[in-house]
Design goal:
Blueprint: E1 5-11, H1 18-23, E2 30-35, H2 42-48, E3 52-55, H3 61-70, E4 76-79, E5 84-85, H4 88-100, E6 105-114, E7 117-118, E8 128-134, E9 138-142, E10 148-151, E11 155-157, E12 162-166, H5 170-191, H6 198-215, H7 222-247, H8 252-270
Helix pairs in contact: 5-7, 6-7
Amino acid sequence: MKNNLTAIIIAKNEATMIAACLETLLFCEKIIVLDTGSSDRTVAIAESYGAKVVHFAHDSFAKLREKAASLVETDWLFYVDADERVTPALAKEVLLYIEQNTAPVMALYRRNICYGHQFRYGNWENDRVTRIFHRDHLLTWTGEIHESPVFKGEVATLQHQLIHLTHRNTADNLAKSAEWTIKEARSLAAAATSEVGFWTIIRKGVMEFYRRALKHQGYKDGLAGLVEALVQAMNRMMVYIQVWELQQKPSLEKRYEREEQEIRRLWHKEGKISV
């Protein structure tokens, strides 16, 4: 029976995660995987589950969301990340809303599992994402990194949560941070009116840790909550360290080019050295 719903996954090198995600999306009429440049088995795995794979890369997450939406042929679309899982109860609730046409847009709360622990504090408990749309009501997406949808119509918040299996280990955490922190740094550097200094970097990290660990009581999630707050603080510092890099005049790239030129000049001046 057709349910007029397409699941969308935007993925890059998600071979270890995407199969389990796809298994929870087989209730959808169609699945589209927008591959942004995988070098592992992501594409092969997606195709083995019957997903339509389209290759498209862009630095803007909003543009990726828009491109994926343009490929949808059903009336409804559901954005799901490779590290997210739909439960049977959530699937039934989504299909019921679609059948009854209760609201053209649906939002979900996410149950975040970080470092193997369900986080109930640190502001993770307020993680609400708007992911399901009737295609006529989704207008566009905005934001290069922390993208958000622009839509029309009433939003229904579903009762059942989307499971988010994130921050599975520090290595994966750092790899993802390396990818998105530079994008945020470029955006901040383009808009910056003042130079980033040492104390700016320290202050940003300290404030991020304070917000997550103390203000939002992340410490109540135990050591895992404190570790996550510390990781987020480090990520914030990495963003501003890279803003500092981008603000350098001449650029770091130019400085290294100058060093290379000097070395070549020395060798040209010295001539061939015989053993």
